[in-house]
Amino acid sequence: MKEKEREELCWCGSGRAYERCHRAFDEKIGELMRKKYITPPRRIIKNPAQLQGIEESGRINIAVLDYVSQRIREGVSTRQIDQWVFQKTGELGGVPAPLGYEGFPKSVCTSVNDQVCHGIPSEECVLREGDIINVDVSTIYKGYYSDSSRMFCIGRVSEEKKRLVEVARECVRIGVEAVKPWSFLGDMGAAVHEHAVKNGYTVVEEIGGHGVGLAFHEDPWVGFTTKRGTEMIMAPGMVFTIEPMINQGGPEVFVDESNGWTVYTADGKPSAQWEVTVAVTEEGCRILAY
Ligand code: MF3
Ligand code: CO
């Protein structure tokens, strides 16, 4: 390869000529930087091969959650869910990302009722009729990370809890619809927040979503109580999670000091959360895991 040709290769690693790859992108970023907006650093912009890898990882994540959804019911312990996730992820060629992550002891997070997130699977936690549970699955496949979670209602649950779970799901759909290239991440969070508040709920402020793909947690941090016209500009090639935690009562939470992980609502009222991994595209966005 001649020196000149090498120089012209795009920084994204696509192998394409810079001129026809990210040249126009960089001009746009430069313009936004001059206006003092927060713009994505190059390291979080994925090339097509990386997007495909994350999508394949996401396919495993989806299959594992499908597997859980077919088996979860009253009488099952969250330890059993952990075993399903460990076994099914391995069978599909992946590795559960939570296992050993910053000392997390299990393969999945299982958060029941007033547990907001990061619930640790346990033999003692047996699901009973009326419970709502979030199962949060994350997969590493060929070095690519994906992350998504779903809520499950165990048997008949109260109308109150059912509505919380439904609105939490709508919040994610509304967030996804707000993902558009060159608009503000803060607009997405504001749309989520407005929907929750309109329905009488609150949104946890201090825990949010995150960039994902080449690592479990990358920039940006993704809030869901944000203001329009703030936060990072969304650019094509960014991949992040939308995972608002919606509380029936107040937004205050605390961490269980005995395990250092599990987050609870301060008032003991239930919380619900769904999570998707999305990629920003030229047209809008693509869901890579749900
Ligand atoms: N999916 C969860 C998140 O993004 C995973 C938490 S880290 C873990 O917050 F170690 F608890 F898995
Ligand atoms: Co996440």
Strands, helices and their partners?
Elements: H1 3-7, H2 23-34, H3 48-71, H4 78-91, E1 95-96, E2 109-112, E3 115-117, E4 132-141, E5 144-153, H5 159-177, H6 185-198, E6 202-203, E7 209-211, E8 218-222, E9 239-242, E10 245-247, E11 253-255, E12 263-265, E13 271-273, E14 276-280, E15 285-289
Antiparallel strand pairs: 1-4, 2-4, 3-12, 4-5, 6-10, 7-8, 9-14, 10-13, 11-12, 14-15
This protein binds 2-amino-4-trifluoromethylsulfanyl-butyric acid and cobalt (II) ion.
Residues 147, 210, 241, 243, 275 line the site of cobalt (II) ion.
Can you describe what's shown?
It is a single chain. A hairpin with a 6-residue loop joins strand 7 and strand 8. The chain has about 290 residues and is α+β, with helices and mostly antiparallel strands. Helix 3 (about 50-70) packs across helix 4 (about 80-90) and helix 5 (about 160-175) packs antiparallel against helix 6 (about 185-200). The model has no long low-confidence stretch (mean pLDDT about 95). It has helices spanning about 5, 25-35, 50-70, 80-90, 160-175, 185-200; strands at about 95, 110, 115, 130-140, 145-155, 200-205, 210, 220, 240, 245, 255, 265, 270-275, 275-280, 285-290. It is globular, with a radius of gyration of 20 Å. It binds 2-amino-4-trifluoromethylsulfanyl-butyric acid and cobalt (II) ion. 2-amino-4-trifluoromethylsulfanyl-butyric acid (MF3) binds near residues 98 and 147.
